[in-house]
Design a protein that fits this description.
Blueprint lengths: L3 E6 L14 H12 L3 E6 H7 L5 H6 L5 E5 L8 H12 L4 E5 L1 H5 L1 H7 L5 E3 L7 H11 L10 E4 L5 E3 L23 H4 L2 E3 L8 E3 L4 E3 L3 E2 L12 H8 L5 E2 L2 H13 L4 E6 L6 H10 L5 E6 L5 H10 L6 E7 L3 H6 L6 H11 L5 E6 L11 H12 L8 E5 L9 H4 L13 H9 L19 H14 L4
Parallel strand pairs: 1-2, 1-3, 3-4, 4-5, 10-13, 13-14, 14-15, 15-16, 16-17
Antiparallel strand pairs: 5-6, 6-7, 8-9, 11-12
Bound molecules: iron/sulfur cluster.
The site of iron/sulfur cluster has 9 residues, from loops.
């Protein structure tokens, strides 16, 4: 008998409907289970809260028949929510198995398994092709079968946490389907939500334009010190290195499918130099598949790719987000971004008179930046926007650098002269239990001797004043 699987995207806390976007990788994991004939249903609790403010999440979960619960906890925002929901699931069906996956769950696996009896298993590393086997064994042999598997942590018969090694890898991201989310209740309404202002990953607004985040790369070869998805973090949390790239043919097919659903804006976040994006855009133009692309490039696009994007933007609202971070090249490099000022300026100029756009992001609280050196960020930002003409296609923005739980700085703060108070598991829980809707301040931020959180906020205001940003 195949078990009935209920996937739940949790809330941050029962009062807060922010963070409704799914971590992109989970879609591939669930679709792989579906392709092996498992019955998978998805419930996005923050989405349900946004659609119905009177919704009772326990009653909603109880309306489903399930043997297995999968909860995602990729970002730390969900560390409290997964525990609340796991407990509700066990109350509704005491015999169900509850599994939690994602970088943050992996990082705090001991704490989660010790503090929340309702969580049976924490998943580590890649799971796409492992989960179907784990589930078959769990149903036929019960909990004792867990000891056969790598990439998991669980409590044994005596209540001790067993932490298995990561030795299973799913590197081929061409094998999975990341675009079919029809397993999720209200998936059409989900696509109507768009990135929120100022804190894109945090609060979301309903725009009804059909937005989709499309993964095209798994892993990263760079080491931006505050990022929890860096090569360093990948090694610690998934026991592997390198980046795995979706093929141009597969990306083209993803666009075709999303176009057939009426998607009007796709967000892509990757290192463009690792793929043939010129060819992908040319093929899309040739086949007349026109969807707006918001392309967050982890480094800098080539001039050829930038020009191709400009051509594609004649029929779509498409452009780039680039992290310039600082006006000082050495400081930029310390923070993982390799472009020189000249290279950034050259790319900016290409967009000045185009139908596309380019937006450069700066931040005062980054490794090596000081109160004085931040003036060069303001000067450089002014230089970039000075290339604008009437169309004003070049923009700049400035916000605080959040420190990821699984980042290099979090592990080795002294190496980066980091003066932040680094939150412990209980700090995260206290913060998350009482987090208020749409708040962006109070996250764990990078702080140096010179630039703490209040100085950061002052410098952001100064940047916005000098650049006349409303
Ligand atoms: S911020 Fe840096 S380390 Fe993180 S994913 Fe982007 S390029 Fe990679």
């Amino acid at each position: 008998m195949k078990p009935k699987i209920l996937y739940i995207h949790p809330f941050c806390n029962p009062e807060l409907s922010d963070f409704l976007f799914l971590p992109a990788g989970i879609v591939g994991v669930l679709n792989n289970l579906r392709s092996k004939n498992f019955s998978v249903t998805g419930l996005n609790i923050p989405l349900e809260m946004k659609l119905d403010s009177d919704m009772n999440f326990e009653e909603l979960i109880a309306s489903f028949d399930f043997d297995i619960i999968i909860l995602d906890c990729h970002w730390y925002y969900f560390l409290h929510g997964v525990q609340v929901i796991a407990e509700s699931c066990k109350k509704i069906n005491p015999d169900c198995f509850v599994l939690v996956g994602g970088f943050s769950a992996n990082f705090f696996r001991y704490e989660l398994l010790k503090n929340c009896e309702a969580i049976d298993v924490v998943l580590k590393g890649d799971q796409e092709t492992l989960l179907p086997t784990i589930f078959k064994s769990l149903i036929s042999e019960g909990r004792k079968s867990l000891k056969k598997f790598p990439n998991i942590a669980y409590r044994n018969f005596f209540g001790f946490v067993v932490d298995k090694k990561i030795s299973h890898f799913d590197n081929d991201i061409n094998k999975c389907n990341y675009t079919d989310i029809s397993f999720m209740r209200h998936w059409k309404e989900y696509m109507g939500f768009y990135l929120g202002p100022k804190a894109p990953g945090v609060n979301q607004k309903f725009e009804n334009e059909n937005f989709f985040y499309l993964p095209t790369q798994k892993g990263c070869i760079h080491n931006c010190p505050c990022c929890g998805g860096s090569a360093f973090s990948q090694k610690i949390l998934s026991n592997k290195k390198g980046a795995f790239i979706r093929s141009p043919e597969k990306i083209f097919a993803d666009f075709e499918y999303l176009n057939s659903l009426g998607v009007s804006k796709i967000m892509i976040s990757c290192d463009s130099k690792l793929n043939d994006w010129v060819r992908i855009l040319k093929d899309l133009e040739k086949k007349k598949i026109f969807i707006g692309i918001l392309f967050e490039d982890w480094q800098l696009p080539s001039k050829e790719f930038a020009k191709q994007m400009i051509s594609y933007a004649k029929k779509t609202d498409s452009g780039f987000l680039i992290s310039a971070l600082s006006g000082n090249e050495n400081i930029r490099l310390k923070n993982g971004k390799k472009a020189t000022n000249d290279e950034l300026e050259e790319i900016a100029k290409i967009f000045a008179d185009s139908d596309s756009y380019i937006s450069f992001w700066f931040s005062p609280n980054i490794v090596g930046e000081t109160f004085d050196s931040f003036q060069s960020a303001i000067d450089f930002a002014k230089e970039l926007v000075s290339f604008n003409n009437k169309k004003k296609r070049i923009s700049v923005q400035c916000s605080s650098m959040e420190l990821d739980l699984t980042s290099q700085v979090y592990f080795q703060p002294k190496n980066f002269a980091c003066k932040s108070y680094l939150w412990s598991y209980s700090d995260f829980l206290n913060h998350l239990k009482f987090r208020v809707k749409n708040t962006v301040k109070g996250n764990m931020s990078f702080e140096s001797v010179e630039i703490n959180v209040s100085k950061t906020n002052e410098l952001i205001l100064l940047f916005e004043k000098e650049l006349s940003i409303q």
